[in-house]
Amino acid sequence: MNKNSSFIRESYGDYLKAIYILALDETPVSTSSLAKEMKVSNASASDMIRRLSKENYADHLPYKGVSLTTKGEKIALSLLRRHRLWEVFLKNTLKIPSENVHQYAELLEHVTDDSLEEYLDAFLGYPEKDPHGCPIPRKDGTVASIPQCRLSELKEGQQAEIIQFREEEPSLLKYLYDVGIELGTNVKIEKKISYDNSLQLQIDGKSICLGEKITTTLIVKLL
């Protein structure tokens, strides 16, 4: 296997990906947000931020947070591309349930070189999105823009189509599938409960209630 510049320490790569994804909602990314995403202590996250900054993968702004340098973003997008391509392969070719592909893609992305990535992309027919509706970064490092309207932002009476799952936690995805929410599912907001911002939804003639913790992770397109 021919190694290339995107082969760095696995732990570095995982942090760079996490910073990139968190930065879609929060810039710079706070240490506490990064620690929560990586399931580590704030001290561990701070230590990694210092190491990434020292090697010019990230810029650390004291008391504010961290952002990726051009060098760090390039690595993050490369790993994210490979991760999402593998998710498509695992779902479409091996028929692994969508809620389980993330964990396997995490392993495969780190042992994929440029050549294998090209073969995989061609084999899959150059997909643009992963099984969760997230855009697959292009080979040139660009990423298709997807409107980031969250289900939690909708008002009573509005209808929308689910187009992306921002959270890939297997237990959450399984729950959503079990209650009938998949990519392409149409939902209508029946009621917004002000006490806790939960939503009562109508899906295929039945009503379900989802809490704000879940509705903020669902990206929708208004109908």
UniProtKB/TrEMBL annotation:
GO function terms (MF aspect): DNA binding; DNA-binding transcription factor activity; protein dimerization activity; transition metal ion binding
InterPro entries, alphabetized: DtxR_MntR_Metal-Reg, Fe-transptr_FeoA-like, Fe_dep_repressor, Fe_dep_repressor_sf, FeoA_core_dom, HTH_DTXR, Iron_dep_repressor, Transcriptional_repressor_C
UniProt keyword Ribonucleoprotein, yes or no: no
Domain HTH dtxR-type: 14-69
Main location: cytoplasm
Location relative to the cell: Cytoplasm
Domain of life, per lineage: Bacteria
One GO term describing the cellular component: cytoplasm
Transmembrane segments: none
Keyword Repressor: yes
Keyword line: Activator, Cytoplasm, DNA-binding, Iron, Manganese, Repressor, Transcription, Transcription regulation
Family annotation (SMART domains): FeoA, HTH_DTXR
Family according to the record: Belongs to the DtxR/MntR family.
Function: In the presence of manganese, represses expression of mntH and mntS. Up-regulates expression of mntP.
Assembly and oligomerization: Homodimer.
The protein, known as: Transcriptional regulator MntR
